[in-house]
Design brief:
Strand order of the largest sheet: 2-1-7-8-9
Radius of gyration: 21 Å
Family: Belongs to the HypD family.
CATH architecture of the largest domain: 3-Layer(aba) Sandwich
Distance between the termini: 27 Å
Protein name: Hydrogenase maturation factor
GO molecular function, one term: carbon monoxide binding
Bound molecules: iron/sulfur cluster
GO biological process, one term: protein maturation
Largest sheet: 5 strands, parallel
Keywords: Iron, Metal-binding
Helix content: 25-40%
């Protein structure tokens, strides 16, 4: 409720927590880098100016937590090709301006293709019910949107409906980032909303294998500061622990029916996360049982693309998503690359770090 939200924005509590962070950093006695893995965390950190409250030596970096940003160019090319071939392509609004190799869906729309913005997979299925033509849902996002896509597919959607899945599964990407030689992360603030589906218990293996603490955090200022304090406690105690700092929404096992639904419809495969790396088991594709709704099975999708805009070669979005660079280190930031004319995907989405940093005046 609104009252609950206010409770998690209480300035007095925030001050107590920042004092605690300061004293924990004194105990630790060396710089600490925490990575969060969620665009909504970056939005909240920027909106409430939380970086300015952090003690010296404590750095928060964003990891691969923006689904729009990590959707790979060839996936956008597939959607553009389907739209140009006369299919109705329905997708989330943020996806329209994400650059493909040559074109975005917005460009295809300007050239006459039928591209529609939807707020959910079920809305895309409703379009298919009303239309005779093929409707392809370009499905993007992490576990939180994969589960609703799965719910539509198990509910006997219209025959002219199919899914082009660019859904991604976060935990394997965290492992890749933890292994990258240039990424020096002391602890992970895991995304609260993905954990409402997967449960926080999922991170146990990660914490054990990488001997790095992880804390699931919510999205209000107090949630984030509290999550950081739990992480610093683990780091001070040299304990690779796991904690749930978002107990009002997240349980150990998560939403079991949603998880079952998701793993009924999807399976994982190796896939490229834009600019970061090839990540094993982190792309979600339709399982054999639902292959009749798989746009890649139903249509021959052969994007005829030449080369990318040379400017995109300067885009360091992948490094930002891997936690090795900040948006203002990109030479194009706020100059050639703006939300009106995005060069890279990180400037498109409301969860994209470049767009967030520019909106909040540089280095939030
Ligand atoms: Fe890429 Fe634009 Fe961000 Fe630079 S500012 S990293 S070009 S999205």
């Amino acid at each position: 409720t609104g009252d609950q939200d206010l409770q998690f924005r209480d300035p007095e509590k925030a001050e107590q927590l920042t004092d605690k962070l300061e004293s924990l950093m004194d105990d630790i006695g060396e710089p600490v880098t925490i990575m969060h893995v969620c665009g909504s965390h970056e939005q909240a950190i920027a909106k409430y100016g939380l970086r300015s409250l952090l003690p010296d030596g404590l750095t928060i970096r964003m990891g691969p937590g923006c689904p729009v940003c990590v959707t790979d160019m060839p996936e956008v090319d597939e959607a553009v090709t389907l739209a140009e071939d006369g299919k109705i392509v329905a997708t989330y609004g943020d996806m329209l301006r994400v650059p493909g190799t040559e074109q975005s869906l917005d460009d295809a729309k300007a050239d006459g293709a039928d591209v529609r913005v939807v707020y959910s997979a079920s809305e895309a299925a409703e379009i298919a019910e009303e239309e005779d033509r093929e409707v392809v849902f370009f499905a993007t996002g992490f576990e939180t949107t994969a589960a609703p896509t799965a719910a539509v597919l198990v509910d006997d959607p219209p025959e002219n409906f199919s899914v082009l899945s660019a859904h991604k599964y976060v935990p394997p990407a965290m492992e890749i980032v933890a292994e990258l030689p240039d990424t020096d992360v002391d602890g992970f603030l895991a995304a609260g909303h993905a954990a409402t589906i997967t449960g926080y218990g999922l991170f146990e293996e990660f914490v054990e294998e990488y001997e790095t603490p992880a804390v699931v955090g919510g999205f209000e200022p107090i949630d984030i500061l509290f999550g950081l304090a739990r992480l610093l406690e683990f780091i001070r105690d040299d304990e690779p622990g796991l904690a749930n700092a978002y107990q009002r929404c997240v349980t150990e096992e998560g939403n079991v029916p949603a998880k079952e639904l998701m793993w009924d419809v999807f399976e994982t495969t190796t896939g490229e996360w834009r600019g970061i790396a090839e990540v094993p088991d982190a792309d979600l594709i339709l399982s054999e049982e639902y292959s009749e709704y798989d746009a890649r099975e139903r249509f021959e999708i052969e994007p005829d693309v030449g080369g990318a805009d040379p400017l995109t070669e300067d885009c360091i979005c992948g490094d930002i998503m891997a936690g090795t660079a900040d948006p203002d280190e990109c030479p194009l930031f706020g100059e050639e690359c703006t939300p009106q004319n995005p060069v890279g995907a990180c400037m498109v989405s409301s969860e994209g770090p470049c767009k967030i940093w520019l909106e909040y005046g540089g280095q939030p």
